[in-house]
Write a structure and sequence with these properties.
Blueprint lengths: L15 H18 L3 H5 L4 H21 L6 H19 L7 H13 L3 H12 L21 H23 L6 H19 L1 H6 L7 H6 L4 H5 L8 H21 L8 H20 L13 H16 L1
Helix pairs in contact: 1-3, 1-5, 3-5, 3-6, 3-7, 4-6, 6-7, 7-8, 8-12, 8-13, 12-13, 13-14
Length: 311
């Protein structure tokens, strides 16, 4: 057959029952793992809620790969590359039986999510398996950042990009929404970093910038072997103040997105900001026990979000 008469392959399209199943799987993953995000999703219209669950499930798979203790750092990077290749094939219309990729590619088409943003999400998690300069892989996984600007790049990839994906699903027209979404993502990620210092240190990961630690006479090694939580209080307070500044952008962003999504963003911003302030009330003691909002505290914020949606 000549080139002129060859048929162009038709992109594969999943059947409606397959998509229903796929979104259901993503919803289950989100409900089980997204202890804070899921509450904000509940205030959204169904299709937007499903799309965000697909995005979360994709991020969860990336995180699970990079956090898998059974794999060496090179194996984690290889599996992450394989996962991204599978996404790219699905985006090109090739068949897949992976529920997450089925739902994600459908959501991407529905809400015109730039493919590059999804790649950035995966590349951000890959930063967690990049060994420090001169650090041999055999000595363990160490993640550290010298300056806040270094940390900001990581936060951009794993959180600001999430904000950009979210506003595509929420709906917006004014490009001014984009830098606000980026800064809102920074606020969320800094809150997570403050809350998870102990857990991250146990994995050999220190996200607090070296220059900020040095201001309190601390080094990365001190965080890895921290026994006196009060020594870390000034550094965590510094990062919390940065986060508060970024939360202002979250408040400003609400007016830029579609009206039916504004209550969801309001819920997300207030859940994460309330978590940060709860940590502050506990004098930034994140070592004695992991600080979290109770179900009742989150439901109270969710209830206010539902009222905003109704009014």
């Amino acid at each position: 057959m000549s080139a002129g008469t060859q048929q162009v392959p038709v992109p594969w399209t999943p059947a409606p029952p397959q998509l229903v199943m796929a979104y259901s799987v993503c919803k289950g993953i989100t409900r089980q793992n997204a202890k804070n995000f899921y509450y904000g999703f509940l205030v959204l219209p169904r299709r937007k809620r499903e799309a965000l669950c697909a995005v979360y499930a994709f991020m969860r798979r990336c995180d699970d790969i990079t956090d898998d203790p059974k794999l060496s750092p090179p194996e984690r990077r290889q599996q992450l590359d394989t996962w991204l290749d599978a996404l790219h094939r699905a985006q090109q219309g090739q068949p897949t039986d992976d529920a997450i990729l089925l739902a994600l590619t459908d959501a991407q088409r529905r809400y015109a999510i730039p493919a590059g943003l999804l790649d950035e999400l995966a590349h951000g998690t890959a930063m967690d398996v990049e060994e420090s300069e001169g650090q041999p892989l055999t000595s363990g996984l160490i993640v550290q950042y010298k300056t806040f600007e270094d940390l900001r790049l990581y936060c951009y990839r794993v959180a600001s990009v999430v904000g950009l994906v979210c506003i595509h699903i929420f709906g917006y027209r004014d490009p001014a929404a984009e830098p606000l979404a980026e800064r809102c993502g920074l606020a969320f990620q800094l809150t997570n970093i403050i809350r998870d210092v102990k857990e991250d240190a146990s994995l050999g990961r220190v996200y607090l910038p070296e220059e900020d630690l040095a201001k309190s006479g601390l080094a990365v090694s001190d965080v890895l072997s921290m026994t006196d939580a009060s020594r870390l209080r000034p550094v965590l307070a510094l990062e919390a103040e940065r986060a508060r500044e970024f939360y202002v952008s979250g408040d400003e962003l609400i007016a830029f997105i579609a009206e039916d999504s504004q209550p969801a963003l309001w819920v997300l911003v207030n859940i994460y900001r309330s978590l940060l302030e709860k940590i502050a009330v506990k004098q930034y003691d994140v070592f004695t026990a992991k600080v979290a909002l109770s179900t009742w505290e989150k439901l109270r914020i969710l209830g206010k979000g539902f009222l905003k949606r109704l009014t």
